[in-house]
Amino acid sequence: MVDEMGKQLSVSRRNVGIFAHVDAGKTTTTEHLLYHSGRIRALGSVDSGTAQTDSMDVERERGISVRSATTAFSWKETFINLVDTPGHVDFLSEVERSLRVMDGAILIVSAVEGVQSQTEMIWHALQSLQIPTLLYVNKMDRIGADPARVLQEIHKQLTSMAVPIYAPLGIEDTFRGAVNVLAEGAPSAPTSGFDLAAAVEKLSELDEPLLSSYIEGVPIPAREVKTTLQRYARQGLAYPLLVGASSKGIGIEELMEAILDYLPGPSGSAEQPLSAVVFKVERDKTMGRMAYVRVYEGTIRNRDTLFNATRGVEEKVTQIRKIDGRRTEDIGLVAAGDIAAVCGLTQVRIGDVLGRPEAVPPAPRLAVPLLTVQVHAQSDAQYPALVAALQELTDEDPLLDLQWLQEERELHVKVMGAIQLEILTSLLDSRFGLQARFDQPSVIYKETPSKSGEGFIAYTMPKPCWAILRFQIEPGEPGSGLVYQSLVRGEQLLAQYQNEVERRVPEALQQGLLGWEVTDLKVTLTYGEHHVWHTHPLDFAVATPMGLMQGLAETGTKLLEPMLQVRITVPEAYGGKVLSDLVQMRAIFDPPQISGDRFVVEGRLPAATSLDYPVKLSAMSGGRGVITSSFGGYQPSPPDVQAERKRRGVNPLDQSKYILAVRKALST
After folding, report:
1. Is the dihedral of CA 329, 284, 97, 61 positive or negative?
2. Alpha carbons 244 and 252: distance in angstroms, whole number
3. In Å, what is the CA distance from 118 to each residue of 90, 158, 316, 435, 514?
4. Rounded-to-integer distance, Cα 429 and Cα 435, Å
5. Quick one: residue 597, left, alpha or beta (phi over 0 = left, psi -120 to 50 = alpha)?
6. What Gene3D superfamilies is this protein classified in (predicted)?
7. Which of 203, 378, 455, 629 has its CA at 20 to 30 Å from residue 20's CA atom?
8. How many beta carbons lie within 10 A of that of residue 301, not counting itself?
9. Is residue 242 over pLDDT 50?
10. Which is nearest to 94 in space by CA: 65, 121, 119?
11. 3-state class of 284 per DSSP?
């Protein structure tokens, strides 16, 4: 571990995330990287609960990663921060946050299952952020491994610029390693596509000098091919592909070499003003709240006072720790290009920017919770403790979006799926000693305006108050969310009041006519008026919801239901039954395909009709059916689908009652 200040500012580094679909072997690969680098002396195991990066009790018990885990190792004088991310779709938010702070990535694909739905989702996120990526085809020793088929899938479904740099020696139980096709004098590969000629052919699509030599039949040295690939790989334009069997340690050293050869080091200067982002928050028994920070520019030292640009507050650092699996170490400072846990920041939240925001990349958006569920305490006396526990868990995963309705004594959280609910139940028990009960989850619908219309409110009674607003409400494109603009001049409505309206619009649209969030719309403030004497600063906070709800009453709203993009694979004999099920669930699907003796169909399913289908599919196929899913957006529900949610608080459409309720709240 590098812990000397001078060294930490100058050492060669890599910040690498390791990503994959569930069960592709991320944690096992991480364990072998640590072992082969000499970072740990004995190999842990996911199955036995001894893996370094599975530090939570529930992870060790269930053999799955729930939270992203930061570890580190050194290889050939390069310090590598490695983040092992969960593979299960229920914990996609952890993947999302890790993506933001990586300079390079390893995307693992199973040689047996090939490209799966979450593989594609992560790939598109890596592409959108232009993160240089190594592709690692794992489990080459397993029955059913087919590297040629998987390479074809990668070229078809992910990228045509995947460039194999190692060719497999053997397959399934005869797999014994790989040969470097970019080494001088490397033998021709027995597997089609895994050879120097294939690498040259791919790279010639990017590189003109290489293309000229290729067309003219001029022999191209392997050294030149490697140099060309390094240049394009570090730009995120070509993607080196490796093969291995991590559980046996085969291909691990080659992977470490590829991290150094093909992934870029971090940019940024330790001498610049601070620019950093918080990507994870944890509570430690001894250190309290720890914020995991990636520093892009500048340096953070013990006892520094940091400005949180997101929250507009300053806080003092008490300690900076390097987290290595289950061990932590005080390192005194963290400089540009590095990752560490910062203690003492009590108000910080995930996604907060520390210092200047300019150098911090945008956050991807992958995870969308589709289910809401009510949580019950074992007794009324336990509700305060349960609220505090869930608030702590929400700090660690903001997508839980905890809502505590005090008057109704109701607790609600948003979740991705059934596995996450099981993990939450286990965490509340093991970490907080609380026995909580979750209701059956229900689907989160949304609303959108049925047509264009206008909302108007003149909030002038009972005095003193004065706020007049007129909104134009229009349907937006699917997936566009809320688009807001104001056409009102500053002399007509002061900037401070316009800012208050803009801040209150998203809040007001959290509950539409049917009780669901209103989305995919454009709201334009076309008129606004205040009074020199009678207007109170909060009058526009009261008026905005009334004006918007009056407008929605005029436009009407359509119900939107969440969709899942699914891929179902079953033995061919069950194909007919699967198609029948899909029709009953209102699915939209592509023509099925037969791959070997497997029946494969892809399509879109309403989340509401398919909540129990994974269990049903497994039972129907004797455990041989596989369904993978990802969020597929919202679309209008059929007319016969009715879903209304009970409104929280007073409806702004009942203006008299709403004003009285708000004024009572203001007076208290």
Report:
1. positive
2. 7
3. 11, 12, 39, 32, 32
4. 6
5. alpha
6. 3.30.230.10, 3.30.70.240, Elongation Factor G (Translational Gtpase), domain 3, P-loop containing nucleotide triphosphate hydrolases, Translation factors
7. 203
8. 12
9. yes
10. 65
11. strand
Structure tokens at 36: 């082969």
316: tokens are 């003092």
Q: To the nearest 10°, report the CA torsion of 114, 115, 116, 122.
A: 140
Q: Per DSSP, which regions of 461-551 are E strands?
A: 467-475, 482-486, 521-530
Angle between helices 208-216 and 196-203 (to 10 degrees): 130
Average pLDDT over residues 494-512: 95
The answer to whether 272 touches 336, Cβ cutoff 8 Å, is yes
Neighbour count for residue 385 (Cβ, 10 Å): 15
How far, in Å, CA of 187 to CA of 312, rounded?
A: 61
pTM: 0.72
| SS3 readout for 97-115 | HHHCCCCEEEEEEECCCEC
Nearest to 458 by CA among 449, 467, 448: 467
Mean pLDDT of the chain: 88
Distance CA 90, CA 631 (A): 11
pLDDT in tens, 196-232: 889 999 999 999 989 998 888 888 899 999 999 999 9
Q: How far apart are CA 299 and CA 270, in angstroms?
A: 5
Q: How many CB atoms lie within 10 A of CB 381?
A: 8
Strand partners, 83: 17, 70
| Token reading at 481 | 């969310």
Q: Are strands 305-308 and 371-376 parallel, antiparallel or unpaired?
A: unpaired
How do residues 518-530 score in pLDDT, each as one tens digit? 999 999 999 999 9
Q: How far apart are CA 149 and CA 471, in angstroms?
A: 56
**Higher-scoring residue by pLDDT: 585, 157:** 585
| DSSP at 352 | P
Residues 6+ apart with CB under 8 A from 108: 18, 19, 20, 24, 25, 26, 29, 136, 137, 138
Handedness of CA 221, 224, 228, 233 (dihedral sign): positive
Q: What digits encode the pLDDT tens for the residues 420-437?
A: 888 899 889 988 999 999
Main-chain dihedrals φ then ψ at residue 445, nearest 5 degrees: -90, 170
In this structure, of 319-333, 388-402, 448-462, the range with the lowest mean pLDDT score is 319-333
Residue 92's H or E segment, with its range, is helix 92-99
Q: So what's the pLDDT on residue 399?
A: 84
Q: What are phi and psi of 626, to 5 degrees?
A: -125, 130
* pLDDT level of residue 532 (50, 70, 90 thresholds): confident
Quick one: pLDDT at residue 188? Answer: 62
Torsion sign (Cα): 2, 326, 131, 178: positive
Give the least confident one: 16-25, 112-121, 468-477, 600-609. 112-121
Q: Which SS3 state, helix, strand or coil, does residue 367 take? A: coil
Tokens coding 403 = 């809502």
Structure-token pair, residue 494:
């002061």
CA 238/CA 207 separation, integer angstroms? 11
Please state the separation of Cα 73 from the chain's center in Å. 25
Task: Find out whether 242 and 176 touch, Cβ atoms under 8 Å.
Answer: no
Burial of 204-232, coded b for 16+ CB within 10 Å and e otherwise, reads bebbeebeebbeeeeebebebbbebbbeb
How far is it, in rounded angstroms, from Cα 17 to Cα 84? 6
Residue 187 confidence (pLDDT) = 64
Angle between helices 222-234 and 208-216 (to 10 degrees): 150
* CA distance linking residue 637 with residue 640, whole number of Å: 8
CA angle 612-617-623, nearest 5°?
125
* Phi, psi angle pair for 554, to nearest 5°: -80, -40
pLDDT band at residue 3, thresholds of 50, 70 and 90?
very low
